[in-house]
Write a structure and sequence with these properties.
7-stranded mixed β-sheet, Rossmann fold
């Protein structure tokens, strides 16, 4: 896509203003989603949930894939989980993994208030320990997998996501730009190093076709990676 218009750097205030403008036009007010964010904040959860526009992107991707089975690695307060669960058909299911009991409980309340407890299977435990259980249970294959957990283990999460995906499915990994530090080969930040290892793994992996998009907004400068599972 050819860029047109002013390419000069815009301050963060402009990013936020544009985000609010778009959200105000394209995303309807939603008391349930608002309450999920508010209650998560009151419970002391970190303010790292996806934005409304990012949540709707998850919803739209799941709808476009006609996803019936969705896996989320990293529940937090359940805000993104609600967006994903709302994209499901009647027979669909979201399996969401969370390691922190406090986050798990907050999400459980938010998901129940949204009326989605029957279509969301919450799992408490370390995210690298639960995928083997899902594989043993025959819980997959999943149509869409959203990875939003600790960045140090990004490669391992991706490898499990690929094992649990179907051909034609998609894997989305959040927070992969890290304020641009991902381009720094000398970084000592273990989270950034984790994302760089993921990028290297994606470049070697013939079973997926992937791209990364940089984003700006109320969450600052970051981005996501989208991978299509080919085989």
């Amino acid at each position: 896509m050819k860029s047109q218009g002013n390419t000069k750097h815009k301050p963060e205030q402009v990013w936020v203003a544009v985000e609010r403008y778009i959200d105000g036009l394209l995303i309807r007010a939603d008391p349930i989603l608002d309450a999920a964010l508010e209650d998560s904040a009151e419970a002391g959860l970190p303010d790292i949930a996806v934005t409304p526009s990012q949540g709707k992107l998850l919803y739209l991707l799941a709808r476009m894939l006609r996803a019936k089975r969705i896996l989320e690695i990293g529940t937090l307060g359940g805000y993104s989980t609600i967006w994903l669960a709302r994209a499901l058909p009647a027979e669909g299911m979201v399996v969401t993994l969370e390691a922190d009991p406090k986050h798990f409980e907050a999400a459980q309340e938010n998901i129940a208030r949204a009326g989605l407890a029957k279509v969301v299977d919450q799992r408490l435990g370390l995210a690298l320990e639960t995928p083997p259980e899902l594989e043993q249970e025959g819980a997959g294959p999943f149509d869409f997998i959203f990875i939003d957990a600790d960045k140090e283990s990004s490669v391992e999460y991706f490898e499990w996501a690929l094992r649990l995906s179907r051909p034609g499915g998609a894997i989305l990994v959040d927070n992969v730009i890290r304020d641009g530090e991902v381009a720094n080969p000398k970084t000592t930040d273990e989270r950034v190093q984790g994302i760089r290892r993921l990028n290297e793994a994606l470049a070697r992996e013939p079973r997926v076709s992937a791209t990364t998009i940089q984003t700006v907004g109320s969450k600052g400068y970051d981005g996501f990676t989208l991978a299509l599972v080919l085989s």
